[in-house]
Each structure stands twice: as C-alpha cells, then as structure tokens.
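Re: [ENG-882] Designed sequences occasionally contain unexpected residues at chain ends

Forwarding the minimal case from QA. Structure tokens:
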C-alpha cells in the first residue's frame, strides 16, 4: 500500500516495503529474467580493447573485475552498448561500477554483522525468483545464459541480496513506533493530503498476445481475446479471481492476485479508454463486476473491488488511516537510517576506483562521437535502468521518498490515499 502526501508542493511517496538496498548485480539479472526481455544481442564487450580480468575497483582489498561491469552494462543495454560513444560508455561503466562498489561495501558489512544467509535460505529465495518469473525451467535457463550468467553466479547474487536485506532488518530493528501525538501532528499538518479521490480499486487478469517465452499460445490479439473469454467463463462459474490471476495473468500484478490498488478517476482518464472509465465510474456498475477490455494490445479482465463516487476527506478515525500514518513514519525513518548507514559504511571503506583514476589520468582520450548512423535517444538509460533508482545506498545519502512519481498505466499499483 502506498500513501502519498503533499506538503509545500513536494510529493513524498512512502512505501510500506521495498526500501531495501538491493545489490545492482542481482537487480539487473533479476529484472532481465522477470521482465521477459528479448535475448540480448551479442554486443561487443571488447569494443574498446579493455582487459576484462582487470580490477575495475577494490573494496577493502576485494577486487571488482571489469568483467562484471561489462556484464551488467550488457544486461541493461541488451547489446546496444556498442552503439555508444567511448565517452558515453565510460560514463555508463563508472555509474555501474559505483553501484557495484556500494553493493560490495554493504555485503562486507553483512559478513561482519553475521547476516549472511545459509545455503538453504539462498535456495528458497532462488526458487521464489524462478517461480515469480512465470517461466519454464528451460526458458529461465535460456534467459540466464542470454544474460551471460550461470546458476552459480545468480546464486551468489541472491546470497548478497539476502545478506544485505537481513542487515537492513537488523539495523532498523531499533526503530520505535511513533507516539500518538506525532501521528496526530503529522495529520494536522497535512490534512490536504488525506483526500480519497473519486475512483475505483481494481484487480485485473491480463492476457498478453506477445510471446513472453512462457509457453503460452496467445500469438495475436484475437488469441488474447479468445483466451480472455475462456477465463471469463471460468470466473462466472465460480472461479476465484485472485487465484486465477496468479495462475494465468501475464502481468506482474499476478503476484498480488491481480490487485492494482486504488486508481482515481483523473488517473484513469490518462491511460484508460473513455468508455471504460465511464463504465467503471457509472453508479449502476456493481462492485464485483467484470469488465473485459482490449487495451494497449492486450486483453484485460478488470474487476471492480471498490468504488468512491465522490472525493472524501479522511480523518484519523477513518479505517486504516492512523495505521497508514504510523507505518509511513516508521518506513521513512527506516529508509533514512538505511541510507545513513550506507553513507557511513562507504566513508569507512577503503575504496580504490581504478576506472575513475584512468579518466582522471587521461581526460582527453575519450571521444564523444558515436559510430556512424547511430542514434541513441538516451545514453544515460544504461546506467539509470533499474540501478540507481532502486539502490538508495548512495554516498550522498539522498533523502528518501522525495519527488517520487505514481505511474498511471493500468498494471501499476496506485495509491489508496491520493493527493488533490
């Protein structure tokens, strides 16, 4: 659940979970596998004649090889790194290396704090990853190979991710629940944020005609409609929506039984067809009703779980609001503590960044020219994709939850409590 508050023009999004500092190496490969990305091109890892066995950096004497940097760039760029100029590629390498350094610093802290998981815990987490991918074992292994990974390298990344997660749980265990007065003061200072906008709480089952490598037979939009109608018949015969969503939906929301969260009418108008919005907001449309909708090349089966026909001012006595405020304050404190801990750990570590030193030593050696005919709309996408945004372990310890955006596309979970 997300609560969005708006004060002094600044949006702060506080999530009850997912404040974890996730190692960029694990995050990149997990995203690659879970997203159903097409096989990455071969790419040219040797385009700049780098020594892949060279230590890109060391953390307290532990080497991070350039090979790992190149592997992550390839996973995130899907083979397009060869289209970048030497200058852009060097920037991408430094960004990825920075994240790897942060991850290694925290893992070494986890080793000292005794939060490294057992082999059994790693196996359980790895199985969860495979299951949540929705892919067959054969496809999972194929995608792993395409990402230039092995079972052992993935296992090592899962181990590090779990170790850091357990470290965070240990250091945030000292956070105390906020006092009633703090909760009341927060509410009193942000009343304008506690407005439940007119809208609906939705769940969805999504049938995607694209071949996601999951063995599905839907290859065209007509196939998606056919399979969607079969699912509708199954639901009408008493099938449990959440369970069927977990089994058959081709969207990440299946992990929550198809739950999309609460979406305001204003948000729906930005991404839903007008006729669908009209049906959902029509008072005569019953809660629990199924709304099949071909949209964005996919077939959605929406289920209205709740509807508010007007804006509602929420108070601390409204169901769940006091707890939401308490949870949000706790989460914000945990995020700040985790980021501060990471900043101190980075400051204490002995880090030697060889790649950065090379740039300092040879500032004029990197050309900004891309290969002829190449157009790269956003060269920063390589270093920014699923790395820094999801890795708050930052030496600058940026303040959590500032200027976060709520996505409006249907599969995204949105807020139960929305801003004006």
């Amino acid at each position: 659940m997300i609560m969005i508050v708006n004060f002094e023009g600044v949006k702060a999004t506080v999530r009850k979970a997912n404040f974890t500092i996730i190692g960029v190496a694990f995050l990149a490969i997990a995203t690659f596998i879970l997203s159903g990305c097409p096989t990455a091109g071969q790419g040219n890892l040797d385009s700049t004649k780098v020594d892949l066995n060279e230590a890109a950096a060391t953390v307290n004497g532990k080497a991070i090889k350039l090979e790992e940097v190149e592997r992550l760039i390839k996973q995130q760029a899907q083979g397009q790194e060869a289209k970048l100029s030497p200058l852009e590629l060097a920037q991408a390498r430094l960004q990825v290396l920075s994240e790897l350094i942060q991850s290694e610093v925290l893992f070494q802290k986890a080793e000292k704090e005794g939060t490294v998981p057992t082999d059994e815990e790693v196996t359980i987490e790895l199985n969860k990853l495979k299951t949540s991918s929705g892919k067959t074992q054969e496809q999972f292994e194929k995608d792993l190979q395409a990402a230039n990974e092995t079972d052992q390298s993935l296992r090592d990344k899962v181990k590090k991710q779990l170790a850091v997660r357990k470290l965070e749980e240990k250091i945030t265990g000292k956070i105390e629940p906020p006092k009633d007065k703090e909760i009341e003061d927060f509410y009193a200072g942000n009343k304008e944020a506690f407005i439940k906008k007119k809208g609906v709480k939705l769940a969805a089952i999504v049938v995607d005609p694209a071949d996601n490598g999951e063995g599905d037979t839907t290859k065209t939009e007509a196939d998606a409609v056919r399979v969607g109608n079969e699912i509708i018949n199954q639901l009408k015969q008493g099938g449990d929506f959440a369970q069927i969503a977990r089994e058959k939906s081709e969207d990440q929301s299946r992990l929550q039984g198809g739950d999309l969260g609460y979406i305001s009418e204003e948000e729906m108008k930005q991404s839903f067809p007008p006729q669908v919005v009209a049906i959902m907001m029509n008072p005569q449309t019953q809660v629990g009703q199924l709304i099949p909708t071909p949209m964005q090349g996919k077939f959605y089966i929406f289920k209205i779980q709740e509807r508010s026909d007007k804006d509602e001012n929420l108070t601390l006595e409204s169901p769940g609001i006091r707890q939401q405020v308490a949870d949000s304050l706790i989460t914000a404190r945990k995020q700040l503590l985790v980021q501060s801990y990471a900043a101190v750990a980075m400051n204490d570590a002995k880090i030697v960044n060889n790649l950065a030193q090379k740039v300092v030593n040879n500032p004029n050696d990197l050309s900004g020219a891309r290969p002829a005919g190449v157009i790269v709309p956003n060269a920063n996408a390589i270093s920014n994709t699923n790395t820094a945004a999801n890795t708050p372990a930052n030496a600058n310890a940026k303040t959590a939850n500032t200027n976060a955006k709520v996505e409006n596309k249907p599969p995204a979970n949105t807020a139960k409590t929305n801003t004006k």
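QA comment: On inspection the terminal residues look reasonable. The chain has 14 helices and eleven strands. Proposing we downgrade this to a documentation issue.
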